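Subject: for your reference before the review

Hello V.,

The reviewers asked for a structural picture of the protein, and I figured it would be easier to keep everything in one thread rather than splitting it across files. Below is the amino acid sequence we used in the manuscript, unchanged from the supplementary table.
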Amino acid sequence: MNQDLYDEPSEGSETLLHNVVYCSRITTGLAEADVQAIIATARRWNPAHGVTGLLVYGGDIFFQWLEGPKKSVEQLMHNIRKDKRHNTLVELSVNEEVRERMFPTWDMELVQPDDIREVLQDALRDAKAAVNTKALRELMQRVEEAELP
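And here is what came back from the structure prediction:
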């Protein structure tokens, strides 16, 4: 793992952090084993490319927060768009700026629907950048609209 990909930008640094928040519908017939395969792949790929984030799966919807170097996040989004386990992908937020990671120690954490509200509330409380606050509020609104169990 290239640890400097996880280094936070220091004041005056030119290091940018790219962030994408999206939701998608799952393909009909997706099994729990398929979701676990997604997580296993993410836990191998993400640390090697400096990507952190979370994945929420509930009902027939994925919500995902990705953050890391622009090239890595864009490659990952390209892979996700081609993945037949997703459809109707909608980007809720795309940002790039010098800022803190919201999920710095999560290579890809699967958050259960019962826990997502608490996780997002904690992240919102800790968010320092306005762009993070806005993206978290948007994700929270989408989670509420989806009426996850």
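For the response letter, the relevant points are probably these. The chain has a mean pLDDT of 81. The beta strands are 17-26, 52-58, 61-68, 86-97, 109-111.

Happy to draft the paragraph if you're swamped.

O.
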